[in-house]
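lol ok so funny story. i was supposed to be doing the assay writeup but got distracted and ended up predicting the structure for this chain instead. priorities right. anyway since i did it might as well share w the group, maybe its usefull for someone
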Amino acid sequence: MKGIVLALLLALAGSERTHIEPVFSESKISVYNYEAVILNGFPESGLSRAGIKINCKVEISAYAQRSYFLKIQSPEIKEYNGVWPKDPFTRSSKLTQALAEQLTKPARFEYSNGRVGDIFVADDVSDTVANIYRGILNLLQVTIKKSQDVYDLQESSVGGICHTRYVIQEDKRGDQIRIIKSTDFNNCQDKVSKTIGLELAEFCHSCKQLNRVIQGAATYTYKLKGRDQGTVIMEVTARQVLQVTPFAERHGAATMESRQVLAWVGSKSGQLTPPQIQLKNRGNLHYQFASELHQMPIHLMKTKSPEAQAVEALQHLVQDTQQHIREDAPAKFLQLVQLLRASNFENLQALWKQFAQRTQYRRCLLDALPMAGTVDCLKFIKQLIHNEELTTQEAAVLITFAMRSARPGQRNFQISADLVQDSKVQKYSTVHKAAILAYGTMVRRYCDQLSSCPEHALEPLHELAAEAANKGHYEDIALALKALGNAGQPESIKRIQKFLPGFSSSADQLPVRIQTDAVMALRNIAKEDPRKVQEILLQIFMDRDVRTEVRMMACLALFETRPGLATVTAIANVAARESKTNLQLASFTFSQMKALSKSSVPHLEPLAAACSVALKILNPSLDNLGYRYSKVMRVDTFKYNLMAGAAAKVFIMNSANTMFPVFILAKFREYTSLVENDDIEIGIRGEGIEEFLRKQNIQFANFPMRKKISQIVKSLLGFKGLPSQVPLISGYIKLFGQEIAFTELNKEVIQNTIQALNQPAERHTMIRNVLNKLLNGVVGQYARRWMTWEYRHIIPTTVGLPAELSLYQSAIVHAAVNSDVKVKPTPSGDFSAAQLLESQIQLNGEVKPSVLVHTVATMGINSPLFQAGIEFHGKVHAHLPAKFTAFLDMKDRNFKIETPPFQQENHLVEIRAQTFAFTRNIADLDSARKTLVVPRNNEQNILKKHFETTGRTSAEGASMMEDSSEMGPKKYSAEPGHHQYAPNINSYDACTKFSKAGVHLCIQCKTHNAASRRNTIFYQAVGEHDFKLTMKPAHTEGAIEKLQLEITAGPKAASKIMGLVEVEGTEGEPMDETAVTKRLKMILGIDESRKDTNETALYRSKQKKKK
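and the output, tada:
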């Protein structure tokens, strides 16, 4: 037995590979040919692609033990932008010349046992070029195990430390070793990537099981051969594929493909001359992010003089929005944002000094400034507020958006913390509230990139909450709780519990609105620590001593944490018990469970199933309760083909005493295969009104809805009995789960408003200014600009260049107004706003409102030196010009509006979508090209002629990949064996005539897409799409002088009521007026016993002429 074991050990020892780790000659220079190609587009032929190719020679020479020099010789860069595979690469001489100086500088790297260590590069070499070095050295990274042919490991590469599988094949007769390795970039221990713009989004981890937006993998093939000095790498080929799809994967995807070839040419005697300058350690193989983080992928600019360029962009934007919005205005606004990012503090000061007193330029600059998000921009905003150079409204808006857009780094965070403590910010209540709420958002984004949130980050909010509680300032307590909710950090739970009933003895004495705010503050924290928040909320929900409104809010928040079946059934059990004594709570819980049980969103499938089971515990008769009881209404949809869905929810919480809604919450949520977001949430609370009505002891339960509303209005008009401290109505608005503003309306505000409206306008500056503008007429234009979305996901390619998936959206709202007002009697010197209610007003106006939304999605290479990829542009342009005359007689309660008939064609809505392949390089910006991904037939001929006239030589066309792979362009022919696709073109036109108004409403659609390649949603979206909704004047039998709408209420309303009479053969016969009047009174609900009537009359007539 011992002999057998010994024999096996000897056999295994003999089978182990020895000295097979790749080495380089210690006395000679190893010379390789290197080629790297990146192409972006779609896998099918006949569609346009864009990319870049790098050719060069690579020389490697020994420097010291386990240390080598690498030098690039004869670099050449080519661009690709054309129809694949017909069109060739074209040489980019200027870009090659611009990069050659840096690329040809030697670099040093550590190399031992097939592993690349630290890399040393000259300090004046850009990070982009250093990453290209990494792409080359990444091919030399190979881990060989002596005793295994197939093995897995986590290996370091350009893309991070990711799962890698090796397969080794050894040819002993040829003394060659073939190694195949594959890397899964979706399975990384330490992945190199950057995501910008999704700090506030909720990532859906379960959705990855259904669909992946981005998938990536790479394969490498090594050919090693034994030489006298050891094993030499003869050839390395690498191929990386990144697949991107916004829809279900089965519908196809866009791809980014990278190919590399490193082929041994030979060796030459001598050594590379060591550089005279000190080489700087630039880290290991992992890709290093640089200035591409600040470079938008949708345009490439030289920013040597950002101030002058920003002035030009400002002038362009203001001119573009004088009378209407030009098509390129949103793109120009994004360009302005990019230029502000490139500007330093002094540039910003100069821009402000130049345009601060010019209204339109000032407004445009203030729109772009908070979107830039740089340290200098945030610092400059802080200075403007401190120097009181902004109005209160401008400061509040600027703070809100600046902190949301600023990069969540240490410096920006410190500026934000200083801004909150600034005395000029605290001086104005509106600005202070905006700053505190925005700071909570900044804390959320800052702490999101840390393992735990530091105490100093939350300290200002904790101190505000503690100080407000000690002083009994309820408004400041609410502000602190809302900001802590924005921050959403588990470290704040104990602070919030001090304001929750059942967790603090003093909390029971707090107003219900404060307790509710404390519960709502836990909603964002639940995203970080759902189990802890569920325990707190369940305890509140089960406590009968807690006010019903607070328990209902706890129920709402509980289901947002997506509890498991055990928790859901516990909630149902509590609701079943409460159904005998607290129908408001039982109804709210039942309706919420029922709504969730019907959800079709895959993200909510476990919760929907749990609610379906839990509903069996509850009494089904709860479903029959009317709207006097609290309800939850939910509508959602999800399309698996699009991997997207949406949900709209309304929560109505009624008072048990008055049956009056004390809280209404409405929100809209979107779902995608990557994230889910609460796009907007609006809440209105009527706690003060409910308290006041409860004290009036009105039996609302016995009244019909109409009488209930009448009683409420009558009670509120006697505002002297309203509570002075409790807000009557309060409301808030959230965007993407973050509260950006809230306001309260109390008795004092009502009294001051009524007093200001009834006193002479001269005593109140704001009232006087508004009335003067109104009475003197308004002439001018208004424009606002936003960058509504910026999402970027950047990962490195194996070549060492950054691959980016991005989504940008900018919007411009514009309105040109020309109006004048006539008032009878003519206003006197002591005229008050209330007197308008007793006057006759005539308003002549012409308005031209419009909105333009531009969305850009890109996939490709985005570096400070060149860009290449696929770009989708979508534009929605809506404009509705109107010219009218309005007559308003408040005394007789009569309103009439007249407008002339349409005289010219107007495009009401225009939608256009296009998909391009684009290339740009910083050395030759004029050579930037954009080609339709789905080319038109005539464009294919033009492209062919363009490339034929470039004088392409055989040397230019030669490629290391053309003979051995599919990466190189092949000869494109129309022979029978080669199938050519025609683009899928469809069009649709339809018109509808509205003879009463004298207009035609026409729809025109045209699409030119890639569905002929693959008939799926994704390929149907790729191409060109146009949609127009047009209003045209229509010919009518009789001339239309004007269109008129009149509304009369009050005593004279009945005199305006007339019947719709079809006068045919009975023309001239009297109509039964009594019957018509009775019928109309019944429809309008007019009470014969009441003298005051409120009726709306609609007059239409139609008469045929006798022939």
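The chain has 29 helices and 35 strands. The mean pLDDT is 84.
back to the writeup now i swear
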